[in-house]
Amino acid sequence: MRTSYDAPTTHSRPDWWGDDALCRKGGDYHPDQWFPEDWRRGVGKLDAITAKRVCARCPAITPCLEGALARREPVGIWGGLDPDERTQLSNDRGRAQAPAA
Length: 101
Known about the structure:
Elements: H1 42-56, H2 61-71, H3 83-97
């Protein structure tokens, strides 16, 4: 009997932006830097700044941000933006798409 890990690969997996994301590849930073308890002050702010710097050079920044906006992600640094910045961007986009009165 063959177990599942012996089975040949028959289905390809679609490309996923996370495969290219720098935050998932390690480096000189810790994944918790993307989820500081308080990104507005203290050590959490320093972690958020570090995470945003990594995001700024990440090839997956756009799909990461768009996914976070679509999910209304309430925590963490996604696509280089913190929750407050994502809320502002969503609000700005909503106003831009609203029909003129």
